[in-house]
């Protein structure tokens, strides 16, 4: 066993930060008896999240995928409509489109931001295009001014997939407040968590009202147990909202720590040939949901071997998402930047309570594993 293995045990890619505040809020929710989809924590979480994002409304959902699906249904996206989205994203983005029978149109990314390339969006628009779903990947926001200009020019809907980017900004304006609506996830590995959970943000009162109606089984607001159309049970519980609210009240602390940890990574890996970490556009605030590391010129087999060696040193890691166009259900045109980038990318431990010595240990392991390319 090496010194790296002996030091402090296993370092995971992610784990939630839970304090007395979270325990107190969840305990209070349990004690209140309001443990299902009604309760004061749901209202407070929605109101404070809208305030945080700078939108008029926020609506809790059962998870990030259902929030995307609900947004698409609410906005009238139907079977046969085309939705433009990046080829490099978690599969939930495309699955939500499939749920409504829409066709995901996969386009390339910007190599610096890893987010959808606005030029590629413009080139992919057809008479069937109904919407754009930009994904704010790994904490970096997409170029929303350019995307919104394209959407306005072609009369397209914009749903921001902000599952990985709570608090990220474009020109000082937070994600989730740019498009017609935003979609967030509060899964256990996200910037803040409610265990499972999601949120729709919007300034559109009609969109908010209809999404809320459909989320609750499309039950009449004036005639209980009366339903005139198909709805969904996409509600969050008061217990989850209690956890989410406590996390939201600590979000600046969490974001500050992520900035600090990334700076530690930069310092510890400075000058290592072939390695590049998260890049940030001058117009963007990156929240570094995941610390990303790209190793120039490696292929998928080499990447997997590199990650295996990290694991042997008790360092967890994750590969970049596979291109959606690699999946059998989501064929698409070739996206050269996506295919160049994805085999080279690895997510490193990025959890809240990492100490500097933990980051330095990860970076020492990275340096050791880089020896395989010498």
What does this structure look like?
By secondary structure, this protein is α/β, with parallel strands linked by helices. Helices cover 38% and strands 14% of the residues. It contains 13 helices and 14 strands. The chain has a 7-stranded mixed sheet, sandwiched between helices. Helix 3 packs parallel to helix 9 (238-248). It is globular, with a radius of gyration of 21 Å. The two termini are 23 Å apart.
Indicate the topology.
Elements: H1 3-6, H2 20-32, H3 40-53, E1 57-61, H4 64-74, E2 82-86, H5 92-99, E3 103-107, H6 118-124, E4 129-132, H7 144-154, E5 157-161, E6 169-170, E7 173-174, E8 181-185, E9 198-202, H8 205-215, H9 238-248, H10 251-269, E10 275-277, E11 284-285, E12 291-295, H11 300-312, E13 318-319, H12 336-341, E14 345-348, H13 356-369
Parallel strand pairs: 2-3, 2-4, 4-5, 5-8
Antiparallel strand pairs: 1-9, 6-7, 6-11, 8-9, 10-12, 12-14, 13-14
Helix pairs in contact: 2-9, 3-9, 4-5, 4-8, 10-13
Kindly list the characteristics that best describe this protein.
four-stranded antiparallel beta sheet; 13 helices; single chain; aminotransferase; 374 residues; alpha/beta; disordered N terminus; pyridoxal phosphate; globular; seven-stranded mixed beta sheet; PyrdxlP-dep_Trfase_major
């Amino acid at each position: 066993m090496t010194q790296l293995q002996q030091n402090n045990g296993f370092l995971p890619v992610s784990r939630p930060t839970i304090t007395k505040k979270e325990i107190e809020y969840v305990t209070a929710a349990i004690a209140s008896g309001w443990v299902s989809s009604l309760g004061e924590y749901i209202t407070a979480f929605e109101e404070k999240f809208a305030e945080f994002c700078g939108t008029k409304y926020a609506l809790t959902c059962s998870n990030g995928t259902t929030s995307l699906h609900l947004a698409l249904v609410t906005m009238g996206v139907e079977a046969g409509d085309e939705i433009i989205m990046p080829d490099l994203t978690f599969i939930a983005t495309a699955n939500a489109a499939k749920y409504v029978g829409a066709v995901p149109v996969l386009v390339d990314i910007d190599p610096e931001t890893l987010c959808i390339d606005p030029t590629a969006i413009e080139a992919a628009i057809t008479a069937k295009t109904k919407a754009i779903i930009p994904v704010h990947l790994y904490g970096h926001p997409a170029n929303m001014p350019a995307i919104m200009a394209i959407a306005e020019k072609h009369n397209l809907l914009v749903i921001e997939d902000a599952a990985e980017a709570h608090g990220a900004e474009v020109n000082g304006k937070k994600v989730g407040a740019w498009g017609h609506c935003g979609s967030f996830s509060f899964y256990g590995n996200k910037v803040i968590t409610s265990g499972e959970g999601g949120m729709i943000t919007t300034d559109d009162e009609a969109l908010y009202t209809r999404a809320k109606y459909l989320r609750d089984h499309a039950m009449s607001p004036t005639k209980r147990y009366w339903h005139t159309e198909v709805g969904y049970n996409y509600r969050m519980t008061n217990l989850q909202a209690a956890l989410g609210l406590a996390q939201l009240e600590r979000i600046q602390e969490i974001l500050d720590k992520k900035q600090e940890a990334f700076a530690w990574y930069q310092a510890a890996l400075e000058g290592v040939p072939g390695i590049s970490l998260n890049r940030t556009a001058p117009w963007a605030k990156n929240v570094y949901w995941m610390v990303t590391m790209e190793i120039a010129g490696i292929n998928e087999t080499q990447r997997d071997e590199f990650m295996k060696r990290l694991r042997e040193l008790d360092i967890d890691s994750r590969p970049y998402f596979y291109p959606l166009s690699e999946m059998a259900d989501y064929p698409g045109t070739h996206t050269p930047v996506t295919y160049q980038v994805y085999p080279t990318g690895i997510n490193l431990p990025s959890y809240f309570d990492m100490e500097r010595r933990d980051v330095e240990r990860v970076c020492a392991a990275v340096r050791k594993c880089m020896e395989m390319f010498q």
